[in-house]
Each structure stands twice: as structure tokens, then as C-alpha cells.
From TrEMBL:
Protein name per UniProt: Exodeoxyribonuclease 7 large subunit
Subunit record text: Heterooligomer composed of large and small subunits.
Cell compartment(s), UniProt: Cytoplasm
Domain OB-fold nucleic acid binding span(s) in chain numbering: 17-110
EC number: 3.1.11.6
Function of the protein: Bidirectionally degrades single-stranded DNA into large acid-insoluble oligonucleotides, which are then degraded further into small acid-soluble oligonucleotides.
UniProt family annotation: Belongs to the XseA family.
Length: 460
């Protein structure tokens, strides 16, 4: 039996593919060789069957390719695709095996012109954000009451009219300087950057407004150029950007110190509101008026109190004179009483001094001293002195009896070895030096021998 891929009944070993196998392997090669890629072209033959999938042809002026976008993907579209639209798709290359049709499986679709610009915008936004141009900590504060406002925009556009009208309505006294610059086209971005630099060199404003009216992403593209963003951050003056409508976001909005959704809103953000200031002024004026009235009322009450306390100088002098006279009289009486008391005290002290004076006590003390002297003489000569002398002699005799000097004077001696008194011969050895103290003098001796004492034993 011949193999399935070989011609029936033949013995040929040439490899033969079935159509199914060929298409499946071709699809595998295509899908493995090409990753997801972006393809741009024009839509044609757009079909939406009941299954919810979408089938169409993507073509340019020289070729075309069939495409399929399944239900789960085309539900995410933000627009309705139609024949003749120029689109950009992200797709996987594949092959429809049952028919052998080369095709693209589309995962994402966007309008080509707007989509390309949007991708460029997102890429530029990520790049400048990485450089730190959008960081909040480098934003400059907007002055609450600027002395002069600068406006950078087209001198003939609707934005300048909106800004000037709003400033006139909110605060007519606020001066405005216009730095004209084109806001669309290739020359717009360099002109805007130069206008920012000019405003900073002239330094005649406190805050700048960079603005223009609404438009498509392509119309607003000059405000997405990096040189405009860098010029905004290089400005020494704070910059408020109000471009397009509220939904329009540009790179200049992100780099600005303050983003306003419209030109009118930008003018409102930089200008004080006259009515609000007038209300604040009236409120402050009323507060100050009330404070002054209260202060004047308090001072008037104080003045009335002082007026009631005020006394005529003549009456006050008379009162002071009378008070002085009364005080002098009280002082004279007090001095007289004090003098009388001091005189009485002096007399009493004089009498006490006379009674206790030495002239009266001296004779009596002299007689007492004479009696004490006689008693002392009698006590020392007749009784105390002989007894004391006899007692002293007795103590001297007792001391001489026990004194070692008395013993030595009777022929005895004291032997010492190394300062210690020897009481036994055995306490010394032959050859030892011994000091012998006599009744008079000392002998330095050396022991020649040891023996028993030949004196009578005092214990026997």
C-alpha cells in the first residue's frame, strides 16, 4: 500500500505534500518569521458579518492584502472604519489554510495621520519627562497681583481677542504687552521660543501667557516641539499656557508653570478679579472702620473719666499746703515726744551707771582681794605646801627603788642583741654581737661561749 503523501501505486520516493499540509506549514513559517508589525494603507471592501468579526482589504497604489479583525479586538476601536479611510494597523502575518489566502490578523487599528502624530507625541512626552522638564518641583509660582502681563500668540487670531477681553473685564488697570508670534506651521516653534527669550530679556512683565485657539493635533503641533518646552523652562518669568480647548493637551501645557484649558482661562488665571478685590477691599475697609470707631469710643470714654478726675491747680495747691502743714505739725509733735523719751532714758542710764561705777566698787573689791591673799598665804605656808613636799619625796624614793638606772648603779648590766634585751643565755649564739649597758657607759661584746649562771636562783 503506498504512503498517503506518495502517488498511488508508484514506487517513487519523492516527497509529496498534500495541499492541507502545504498550507499549514506555510502558515507556520509566516507566523514564526514575522513578529507583530505596523502596516499603513487604505481600507476597502470593509465587511461586518453577523459574527461580529470584521474583514477588509488594506491597499496602497501598488498592492493589497486581505485582513481580518476579530470581534474581541474591533470592539475597542474609537472610530468606525469605512472604505477609503487611511489607517495604521498592528497585525500578525498569517495564511488562511482552507483557501490558501495570505492575510493579516489585525489586533489594533487607528487613523493613520492622527495616529502617527499621537505616537510621536507620546514618545516625545516620555523623552522630555525623563529629562525632568515636567517635574512639579521646578514649577514657578504665579504672582497673585502682577504689575504687567505678557501675551505670546498670533496678533490676528481669536486667542488674543479672548485674552484681552478677559483681562479688560477682570482688571482693566492691568497693563498688557503682546509679543506676536505665529502659532501654526514650521516657523511657529522657533518664533515662539524667540518670543519667550525676548520677553525675558526685556523683563517688563511679571508673568507670560502662551496661547492659541483650538485645532487638530496637527494644527497644534508647534506647541509639541521640544524647543518650545525647553524655552518655557529656560524662562525666568513664570509661563501660563492655554492652548486650544479643554481636551487639548500639548507638550507646552506639561512644561508650563500652570496649564489653563483655554485662552480665556489663561487670562483668568493670571489676572486678579476686580469684583473680588473690591469685595475684599470693602470688607477690609469695614473692618478697619469698625476698629477705628471702637478705638475712638474707648478713647472718648477714657477722656470723660480723666475729665471727671481733673482738679483745679489752685485747689490742689491749697490741699497740698494744708496737708503739708498738718504733716509738719505731726512731725514736730513726734520729735518732741521722741526727744522727751530719749532724755528720760539718758537720765535712767546715768543713774544706773553712777550706782554701778568702779569708783564705788573699787574699795570693796580691794578689801576682798586682800582677804583672798591672806588665805592663800596661810594655805601654802602652813598646811598645803609641807604636805605636798613630803608626798613628793616619798614618790621620788619609790621611783628610785624601781628604776633600772638604780639597779645598774649597784653593779648590774643589761645585755641587748639587735635591740632586744637578753634574759637567757640561750637567746644568743656564739659569735653574736651583744651590747652591754652598765651603770655608766656601754660595751660592744661578742659571744665567745655559753654557760650556766653562777648567781643564786632568784626563784629559790
Amino acid at each position: 500500500m503506498a504512503p498517503p503523501d506518495s502517488p498511488a501505486g508508484g514506487g517513487d520516493d519523492r516527497p509529496v505534500y498534500t495541499v492541507t499540509r502545504l498550507n499549514h506549514e506555510a502558515r507556520g513559517l509566516l507566523e514564526a518569521s514575522f513578529p507583530l508589525l505596523w502596516v499603513e494603507g487604505e481600507l476597502s471592501n470593509v465587511a461586518r458579518p453577523a459574527s461580529g468579526h470584521m474583514y477588509f482589504t488594506l491597499k496602497d497604489d501598488q498592492a493589497q492584502v486581505r485582513c481580518a479583525m476579530f470581534k474581541g479586538k474591533n470592539r475597542l476601536l474609537r472610530f468606525k472604519p469605512g472604505d477609503g479611510m487611511h489607517v495604521l494597523v498592528r497585525a500578525q502575518i498569517s495564511l488562511y489554510a482552507p483557501r490558501g489566502d495570505f492575510q493579516l490578523i489585525v489586533e489594533h487599528m487607528e487613523e493613520a495621520g492622527e495616529g502617527a502624530l499621537q505616537r510621536a507625541f507620546e514618545e516625545l512626552k516620555r523623552k522630555l519627562s525623563a529629562e525632568g522638564l515636567f517635574a512639579d518641583d521646578i514649577k514657578r509660582p504665579i504672582p497673585s497681583l502682577p504689575r504687567r502681563v505678557g501675551v505670546i500668540t498670533s496678533a490676528t487670531g481669536a486667542a488674543i481677542r479672548d485674552v484681552l477681553t478677559t483681562l479688560e473685564r477682570r482688571f482693566p488697570a492691568l497693563p498688557v504687552v503682546v509679543y506676536p508670534a505665529p502659532v501654526q506651521g514650521k516657523a511657529a516653534a522657533p518664533a515662539i521660543a524667540e518670543a519667550l527669550a525676548t520677553a525675558n530679556r526685556r523683563a517688563e512683565c511679571d508673568v507670560l501667557i502662551l496661547t492659541r485657539g483650538g485645532g487638530s493635533l496637527e494644527d497644534l503641533w508647534s506647541f509639541n516641539e521640544p524647543e518650545v518646552a525647553r524655552a518655557i523652562r529656560a524662562s525666568d518669568l513664570p509661563v501660563v499656557v492655554g492652548v486650544g480647548h479643554e481636551v487639548d493637551i500639548t507638550i507646552a501645557d506639561l512644561a508650563a508653570d500652570l496649564r489653563a484649558p483655554t485662552p480665556t482661562a489663561a487670562a483668568e488665571r493670571v489676572s486678579p478679579d476686580r469684583e473680588t478685590l473690591l469685595r475684599q477691599f470693602r470688607t477690609e475697609r469695614d473692618r478697619v472702620t469698625r476698629a477705628l470707631e471702637r478705638r475712638l469710643r474707648d478713647r472718648a470714654q477714657g477722656l470723660d473719666y480723666l475729665r471727671r478726675r481733673l482738679v483745679h491747680p489752685g485747689k490742689r495747691l491749697r490741699d497740698l499746703h494744708e496737708r503739708n502743714h498738718a504733716a509738719r505739725q505731726r512731725l514736730a509733735r513726734a520729735l518732741a515726744l521722741r526727744q522727751r523719751d530719749r532724755r528720760r532714758d539718758l537720765e535712767n542710764l546715768t543713774a544706773r551707771l553712777h550706782r554701778a561705777g568702779p569708783a564705788r566698787r573699787l574699795p570693796r573689791n580691794r578689801e576682798h582681794l586682800h582677804d583672798l591673799h591672806e588665805r592663800l598665804v596661810r594655805a601654802t605656808t602652813q598646811t598645803t605646801l609641807p604636805a605636798r613636799r613630803q608626798r613628793l619625796q616619798s614618790l621620788v624614793r619609790e621611783l628610785e627603788a624601781v628604776s633600772p638606772l638604780g639597779t645598774l648603779s649597784r653593779g648590774y648590766a643589761v645585755a641587748r642583741k639587735d635591740g632586744q634585751i637578753l634574759r637567757k643565755a640561750q637567746e644568743a649564739e656564739v659569735g653574736d654581737k651583744v651590747d652591754v649597758h652598765l651603770g655608766e657607759g656601754r660595751l660592744d661584746c661578742r659571744v665567745e661561749g655559753l654557760g650556766e649562771s653562777d648567781l643564786p636562783d632568784s626563784h629559790n
